[in-house]
Amino acid sequence: MSACGRAAARFALALCGPAVALAVAPAPALAQTASPATAQLIVKFRDAGERAGLSPAMRVAALAGDAGTPLAHARAMALGAQVVTLFRALPMHEARALAAKLAANPDVEFAQPDGMRRRAFIPSDPLVGEQVFFDSSPGGVNAFAAWDLTRGATSVVVAVVDTGITAHAELSGRSLPGYDFIADPVISNDGDGRDSDPSDPGDWVTTADLANPVFTRNNCKVEDSSWHGTSVAGIVAANSNNAKGVAGMDWFARLLPVRVLGKCVGYDSDILDGVTWASGVLVPGAPANPNPAQVINLSLGSTDACSALYHSVFAQALAHGVTRAIVVAAGNDSVDVATSTPAGCFAEAIVVAATTRGGSLAGYSNFGAGVTVSAPGGNDVDFPSDSILTLFNDGKTVPGNDRYGYTAGTSSSAPIVSGVVSLMLSVAPNLTAAQVRSILQSSARPFPAGSNCNTTKCGAGIVDARAAVAAAQAQAGTSGTNYQGLWWRAGGTESGWGVNLAHQGNQIFATWYTYDTTGKPWWLSMLASRTNGENFSGVIYTTNGPPFNNNTNQTSFPPARPVGNGALSFTGANNGSFTYSVNSVVQTKPLARYDLGTGAQPTCTYSPTTPDFAAATNYQDLWWVANGAESGWGVNFAHQGNTIFATWYTYDSNNAPLWLSALVTRNGAAYTGALYRTNGPTFNAYDSSKWVATPVGTASLAFVDGNHATFGYTTDGQGGLPVASQSKQVTRFPFTASGGTVCH
Ligand SMILES: [Ca+2]
Ligand SMILES: [Ca+2]
Ligand SMILES: [Ca+2]
C-alpha cells in the first residue's frame, strides 16, 4: 500500500486512492496524419509451393484470407512481382507493418509498401535554373535535395560582414538591424564614421580618390560600386520560392548586415569589431547586438599571415556561445591560405576554397592544408554555365535599381557554406562549433575523378548540403536530453491527469490523458517535431476507434481528427511546459516528470539506428500490438524499479476515446495490479479535488524480453465498462523512420 499511497499522492492520479493506475496508451494512429501513405504493396510470391500453380489474383485472394485483410491484385510487374491494392491508404509505418505480416506467409517471397517518391523540391524562382551550383552534379552543392529536409528557420541568424546591404526586393523581410563599423569617413563613403545604418552607399573609386594615400597604398583602382555585400547576402538567403528572381541557400534565416568594407578596402580594426559585435560580444562605443549570429560570413581578405589578434577575436566570438561558425573565403590570390588573412585563421574559421563545375580548384582560388572544405565558386563570370548567379544593383556609384548578375570567386563559395551551416542549425540548433566543422568535413563529397583537388589542397571535399543537413539531423537526434516518460503538472497540484512522452530523436509522440466536458476520460495525441533547441510542436488529434474489447478489426475507424495544436518546451531534463490550443481553449501548464517513487528515474537514450530493444531491462516506452496489427490504440509504460505505471489509450463502446490505467508491481515473472477508470473535471477547468478513480478490474504484464510482452486485462463490469478479458501481444512502437529509445 505504501507504494500505492505514494504514487497515488502524486500523479497517479487517482490511482492510488486505492491504487489506481492511469492507463492510457497513445495513438499510433496519430502519426499517420503526418507521414506519407500508400494504398499499394508490392508482393512477390514464391516460385514453388502449394499455391504456385494458381493465378496471381487467386494467390492474392488467398493471401488476403490468410491475413484477414482485404487485398486486391492490380497487376504484374517486372521480376515476377505483383502490385497489390489495399482497402485504403495506410500511413507508411502501417503499410510496412502489414507488408511484414504478409511476408511471413509461406507463399510470399517478399512484400513491401509501394512507396511514392517525388522529385526534389524545385522552388518557383524563375532564375533558379541558372543557379547551376545548386544541383547534384560533381561540382554542385546538392541544394535541391537538402531542401527536401529543411529550407531553414527564422531562428537562425547569419551575419554578412561585408560592404553593407542594399534594399533588394529579394532580401525584403530578411534583414535584422545591423551596424556600420567603418570608422574612417574617407573609406565609409556615407559622410561619417561608425553608425547604426549598415546600408551600402556604394563603394566606387574615382580618379580623385586615388590622390588619397589610403587608396594608393593599397593599389586601389578606379572602379564602379561592387554591391559585394548584397551579392553575398543573396547567395545565403535570397527570398525563395516567391516566383521572383533567384533562390537562396537558406529560405528563412535572417541576415545581420555588418558593414566593415568601404571604398576599396576595410581596416582590420573595423572587421574585428564587426565580427565581435556579430557574435554578441560588446564593442566599445556600439550598442549591444540584440540578435547575435550563429553564422558569421567573411568574404574578404588579403595576403598576410593570420595575426594573434585575429586568432583571439575569432576564438572569443566562438567562445561566447551563440556563433557556431565563422565562414571565411579562402581568397582569390592563388596562394596558400596560410599566407592570407583571415583565411589563415583556420584554427578557428571554416575556410572555403572555390571549385569549378567540374570539381577542380578554380584558377584564382587560394588553397592549402588550412582549407576546411570547397564549394562552387564559378570559374569565370563570362560563362554563366560556370559562375554564381546572385543579387546585384545597377548603380555604378550610388544605389540604383535591383538587378541580378553573375559572379565568381571564393567570395561566393563562402556564403554557400554559410547557407549550408544555417540549414544544419535549423534542424540541429544545438550543434557545437566543433560539430559543425566535423559534419561539414565528414559529409563533403569526395573530389570527382579528374579533379586537380585533393584533401591537402582543397579541404575535405566539396560541401554537400543534403548530406550535411542529414548528418546534422542524426547528430541532433542522438545528442541532448531525452524526455521519454510520464509527466504531470509541475508541483503535483493537478493530480489525475498527465501526458506521456515517447521521444525518438527530433520527434515526441505525446499522449495526453485528461477529461472531456462531461468528465469522461478523454485522450488526445500529438506527434511533435523539434522546432529549435528544446522546443517541439505539432498538431493535436482526437481519435475514434473500435471498443477496447473488440479491437481486432482495425480497418474501419475514421482518421484522427485535428482539434488544435500544442508545443512542448523544456528547461531541463525534468522540467518543461505544455502549451496547447484545443477547441479554441489556449492554456499553458508547467510540466515535471512524474516520479513513481518506486526506484530511480531511468535515463533514456535515443539511437538513430534501432537499438537492441530485446536486451533492454527497463520497459519505459510506447507499446502497441506487434506489427501494428491493431493500430489506433496503445499503452505507455513508465517504469521505475519493480513498478510500472501503464496508461492505456483506447475506445469505449461508442467508439469514443477512453483511457484506463494500472499501477502494476512485479510479482514473480509478471507485473500485476488493479485497473482503473478515472473521471475528472474537464481539461480546461481542472480541479484536482474532483477526480475519481474507479477500480474496473485487473491488468497484467508478462515480459518475454525487452521488446515482447503480453498485456492482459480483465474488466468486471464496474465503471460502466463491459465484462471482458483479453490478452494482447505487444511490442515497442518506434514511430520514426529508424532508430529508437531505450531507457536504463
Ligand atoms: Ca558611417
Ligand atoms: Ca552607415
Ligand atoms: Ca526569389
**Known CATH architecture of the largest domain:** 3-Layer(aba) Sandwich
The major β-sheet equals: 8 strands, antiparallel, barrel
Could you tell me the CATH topology label of the largest domain. Answer: Rossmann fold
Total DSSP E strands: 33
Query: Distance between the terminal alpha carbons, to the nearest Å?
Result: 26 Å
Q: Which structural class is indicated by helix and strand composition?
A: alpha+beta
Bound small molecules, by name, code or SMILES, are: calcium ion
Oligomer: single chain
- Helix count, per DSSP? 13
Low-confidence runs of at least 5 consecutive residues? 1-35
How many separate domains make up the residues?
3
Short description:
By secondary structure, this protein is an alpha+beta fold. It contains 13 helices and 33 strands.
Account of the protein in words:
With 744 residues, the chain is α+β, with helices and mostly antiparallel strands. Helices cover 17% and strands 31% of the residues. The protein is built from 13 helices and 33 strands. The strands form 7 sheets. Strands 16-17-18-19-20-21-22-23 form an 8-stranded antiparallel barrel. The site of one calcium ion (CA) has 7 residues, from loops. One calcium ion is lined by residues 125, 170, 238-240, 242, 244-247.
